[in-house]
Amino acid sequence: MFDSLQKRQEVVLPALAALMLGLWLSIPEKEHEPPPLLWEDTAPPEIIPEPAEDFAQHCDIEPPPDFNRMVEAAGEATGINPRLIALTVYRESRCKVDALGAVGEIGLGQVYPDIWTQVLVEEGIIESVGDLYDPEVNLRATGFILSEVLRYAKGDPADALRRYNGSGSAARRYAREQSGIYQAMWGEPVWFRR
After folding, report:
1. Position 47 in a domain
2. Integer Cα distance of 167 and 141 in angstroms
3. Residues 98 and 138 in one domain
4. Does residue 93 carry a pLDDT above 80?
5. pLDDT value at residue 43
6. Reduced to 3 states, what is the DSSP secondary structure of residue 100?
7. How far is CA 73 from CA 84, 124, 140, in A?
8. Do 64 and 14 lie in a common domain?
9. What is the spatial distance between Cα 41 and Cα 31, in angstroms, rounded to a whole number?
């Protein structure tokens, strides 16, 4: 059987090739050329980056110009989830750049200079307390402080949020409220690290 199949192939294949060649030659010569390549059609589709998150939409008052970029940059510089930085700002200052707290907290994240100045200077985030009035510096300081309180809390997000606010029952309530607000806004549990 193998021999007969091989003989059929030896007869049929050359006949098929001759038929195809005859058909090819019967087509007018100008149609023998392949169509020209259309480079614009062969280019990969343009990749459109996802729009950056609009953190400014949740501010109670007009945030500083370029707020979204500054929050993202602070998150990138400190390794902290930018949503958490923004949430902290919403609660602490309502996005008011020149906010001053009752015991001297400064700016967007209400950084408490009596506690954080020395560490922020050592880390190269500020040179003096006055730098905390710069919104970009204040956001970076806020991200750094969030990373530090997370470290002190040994990775426990609820305890880290409490530590950002202080201690006692008011700080525990703050942590519970911040967790609830975060989950309501973004539909996920609070997470700190990028």
Report:
1. no
2. 20
3. yes
4. yes
5. 46
6. strand
7. 13, 16, 8
8. no
9. 21
Q: Is residue 181 part of a domain?
A: yes
DSSP letter at 134 equals: S
- Dist CA 142 CA 82 (whole Å): 10
State whether 76 and 145 are in the same domain: yes
Q: Fill in the amino acid letter for 46.
A: E
> Alpha-carbon distance 128 to 153, whole Å?
27
Question: How many C-beta atoms lie closer than 10 Å to residue 88's C-beta?
Answer: 24
> 142-188 pLDDT, tens per residue?
999 999 999 999 999 999 999 999 999 999 999 999 999 999 999 99
> How far, in Å, are 26, 78, 114, 141, 151 from residue 129 at the CA level?
87, 19, 10, 11, 24
In this prediction, residues 58-63 reach a mean pLDDT of 94
pTM: 0.73
Q: Strand pairing partners for 111?
A: 106
Could you report the per-residue pLDDT of 16-58, keeping only the tens digit for each? 666 665 665 666 665 555 555 444 444 455 654 555 789 999 9
Angle at which helices 82-92 and 169-186 pack, to 10 degrees? 120
The conformation of residue 111, written as its DSSP 8-state character, comes to B
Structure tokens at 100: 């001053």
Q: What does the block give as tokens for 14?
A: 């050359």
